[in-house]
Amino acid sequence: MAEATIPSPASTTAPGAAPPDERRGLGGGALLAWLFLLPAVVMLGVLVAYPIVWTFVRSLFGADGWSDFAGLGNYQDLFTDDDTFTALKNNLIWVLVVPAVVTALGLVFAVLTERVRFATAFKLVVFMPMAVSMLAAGITFRLVYDRDPDKGAANAAIVSVHDAFSGGAPYPGARPRPNAGLDAEGGGFVTKAAYSAGASVTLPLVALPPDKMPSDARPAAAPAAAGGGLSGVVWLDFSPGNAGTPGKVDPGEKGLPGVRVEAVRDGHTVASATTAADGSFRIPDRAVAGGGVQLRLAEGNFAKSFGGYDWLGPNLVTGAIIGAYVWMWAGFAMVLIAAGLAAIPRDALEAARVDGATEGQVFRRVTVPLLAPVLVVVMVTLIINVLKVFDLVYIISLGSSQKEANVLALQMYLASFGGGDNQGLGSAIGIVLFLLVLPAMLFNIRRFRKENR
Predict the structure, then answer these.
(1) For a pLDDT cut of 70, what percent of the chain falls above it?
(2) Which residue of 87, 152, 180, 406 lies most exposed, with the fewest beta carbons within 10 A?
(3) CA 101 to CA 167: how far, in whole Å?
(4) Does some domain include residue 221?
């Protein structure tokens, strides 16, 4: 006997419609979700959306405020102003150079951490600059890049290496005593008078620091007649307490050995001599036989010693600041890339080695392609960061070279608050800067969505 079937309440629901309980749950869940999201939405609107809209509106007005409607005039000024053009050019240099250099260094450091014994200590040393604020790093590198080798670490190291291979001039900064009959010529000095065979010439020098006096220098003596040649003496014309007679060799005054003296006729060097330990020299007879010659103290005797480079000058300041930035951010790239390296399957690397690939081929054709997603993340992050760089440039370039090191973020500050007093132009620069950063942000968002799928 067949049993009767009692229809369930669910059978009364129209086909394709959600049950009443599910409809009520869906509606309540959406409302609850919006309630949780509301504070974040409000904060985003206040801190992100409103400033962007207000900045764009303000960029349409001039320096005098809301009564000075300028339209797109500020944007036109932005692309025709010399300072802003320099900032755009420097930002282009930053975007093209810095992300690539930092990523490459991070990749090299990450690979090294897998091959050195003290990997943890190595990572700590490389990553430590990330703990330093941009302000502190800027002040530190202003000292590092100081022009004086006695203060700046960069020039101190370069000068030390340079002096190890080049002795430099023997008497840098020395000059003839006034009214000694010598004229400046290039970096050297030449006698006003011309001399013939048998003459003796005194060439007094001053302004030589005591530490530059050679240890083998002997007391100078007045030159004797040279017979058919030409004799003379080069000495430091200074006696303690200024007791001596200017232009005359006095007792106790020392000769200057190693000075190159050239005999010049009609602008051409016909002979040369080097002074002895007592400063004396002699030009051969044949050089002065044809008539009077002038004596020239060559430039190489007095050229100032190499003092390093003007890192904060107009030609090198951008590269110097980039160097400071690379020092700070190479550790960031190393940590991210090292994490990516740790996730690479080792069997792929071992298979390549078994197939006969060299370490260089394994690195180029296996490691780098597998690390491509991580390298892209580092590159995009750095591009966004360098477009916004401000404080490091402001601190290091503070002074006469700030114009040459200018970037958009710094120009925005200078135009608005740093003396320009034109918030309309500053707002226009801010909008342009936002539009430059926007493609990198959208690329990141698209990549995140693709990874979530």
Answers:
(1) 91
(2) 180
(3) 35
(4) yes
